[in-house]
Write a sequence for this structure.
């Protein structure tokens, strides 16, 4: 007879193994950093920082066949905090969906339409959308970015359009286009 405690221990080991990301993946056509990061429930800037030497200066230009190291969620969060987009990626970033394709990047939107471009690409205009990695609203803020830009922590996930626009304005005033343009192509 198998002891129940042994069965529970085996189940727990199996759950732990399933929760750990693979040490490395091979980029496939159609992959993007944000897509890969969402699959492993980590922040894409952390994934980028862990693989900057492989990817290069533009986080949107992945090549099929590249081998990327998948950091733990904690490591990805630490690395994401140090992420600073390069001048190349901030100026000439293609769209997220152009990550591993042959098509050229779309031209960047004019400064006057940057906000509309971000809304279109991030949420499609749905002010209450929450994606699989916990990014929320019109501008797809992470909780930490929301709070850092003055958003009410209690409103995250249920904020008015006016509050989201105010948080966007604050983030834009503090960081410019860098939180969005590296992967939105705006």
């Amino acid at each position: 007879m198998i002891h129940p405690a042994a069965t529970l221990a085996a189940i727990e080991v199996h759950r732990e193994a399933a929760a750990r990301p693979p040490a490395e993946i091979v980029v496939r056509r159609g992959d993007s950093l944000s897509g890969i990061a969402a699959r492993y429930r980590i922040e894409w800037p952390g994934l980028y920082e862990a693989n900057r030497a492989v990817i290069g200066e533009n986080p949107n230009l992945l090549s099929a066949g590249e081998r990327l190291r998948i950091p733990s969620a904690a490591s990805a969060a630490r690395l994401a905090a140090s992420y600073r987009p390069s001048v190349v990626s901030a100026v000439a970033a293609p769209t997220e969906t152009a990550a591993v394709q042959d098509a050229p990047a779309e031209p960047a939107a004019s400064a006057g339409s940057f906000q509309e471009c971000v809304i279109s690409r991030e949420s499609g205009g749905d002010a209450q959308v929450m994606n699989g990695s916990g990014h929320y609203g019109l501008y797809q803020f992470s909780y930490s970015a929301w709070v850092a830009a003055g958003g009410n922590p209690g409103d995250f996930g249920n904020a008015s359009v006016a509050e989201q626009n105010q948080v966007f304005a604050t983030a834009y005033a503090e960081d410019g286009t860098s939180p969005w343009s590296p992967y939105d192509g705006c």
Observations:
- The first strand starts at residue 24 and ends at 26.
- Residues 13-18, 87-112 have pLDDT under 50 and may be disordered.
- Residues 108-186 form a domain with the Lysozyme fold (CATH 1.10.530.10).
- Strands lie at 24-26, 67-69.
